Amino acid sequence: MTTVLIPLADGFEEIEAVVSIDVLRRAGLNVITVGLESRTVDGAHGIALTADKVWQEVAGITPDVLVLPGGMPGSKNLGKHRGLQETAKRIAAANGWLTAICAAPAFTLANWGLLTGRQATCYPGCETDFPKGVKYVKDSVVVDGRFLTAAGPGAAFPFAFTLVENLLNKATAENLKGQMQYR
Question: Could you report the per-residue pLDDT of 11-54, keeping only the tens digit for each?
Fold first, then answer.
């Protein structure tokens, strides 16, 4: 079964995290949420989530997929976490999926050098933090190889459904859209 790791850092964007968790679990994927500092993590808008695990419990695994929610300062907090960076590099080396939404593409994947030579999107204005070699695309969702990026909270559902389509298939994504009344 495909394992998806969703790390949560203080200041994460709640919509992006919860929509990703919910849609991917409905698709039958093994989703593990992890608090980088503790199991209880405070979102950017005062909503706290309880993660399944803390970082020390998952530090040695290489999941198939990494989903990085955005938000501020959550994205910067993710980007500063060396263990998470090492995990992302292992996933890339294993040809897994690296995904990020909102400010996270700029402050994590691009900051770690993993988007160099790729097209990506992010929250408007954060593209100025893309290093040279990352081609900013002003789309809601961008797929480049096994990298998926999205622009922000409003793109949370398309981001999650696009990931389901790529990990499983289009029929599963379309079925979920229907069940969830997503139009």
Answer: 999 999 999 999 999 999 999 999 999 999 999 999 999 999 99
The structural domains of the chain, with segments of one domain joined by +, span 3-176
Strands, DSSP E only, in 51-163?
53-54, 65-68, 97-101, 119-120, 135-136, 141-144, 147-150
Q: Catalytic residue among 17, 102, 142, 150, which?
A: 102
Please determine, looking at this structure, whether the domain spanning 3-176 carries the CATH number 1.10.443.10.
Answer: no
Per-residue model confidence as pLDDT tens digits over 159-169: 999 999 999 99
CA atoms within 13 A on the CB side of 131: 12
- CA pair distance 85, 130, nearest whole angstrom: 17
Evaluate if residue 1 carries a pLDDT over 90.
no
Per DSSP bridges, beta strands 97-101 and 65-68 are parallel
Which of 58, 62, 78 minimizes the C-alpha distance to 17? 78
Cβ–Cβ under 8 Å, residues 160 and 24: yes
Asked whether 10 and 41 are in contact (CB, 8 A), the reply is yes
Annotation marks residue 122 as catalytic:
no
